Amino acid sequence: MSNSKKSFILRIDTEIYKVLEKWAADEFRSVNGQIEWIISQKLKEAKRLKEAPKANEKPKQ
User: Fold this and answer.
1) How far apart are CA 31 and CA 19, in angstroms?
2) Digit-coded pLDDT (tens) for 30-42
């Protein structure tokens, strides 16, 4: 995954934001970080985003 980030405006329902804010705080993340994590997880589940190899794993050949 690239280190560059794209900024964009997101309009979100107030109630959903409150739930995201609580979830993020429970996991010691910012709301932005939580949204990024949720999107990444769903993309991986849908096999649309490859997982980066972990630091101690050898790349597959």
Assistant:
1) 10
2) 999 999 999 999 9
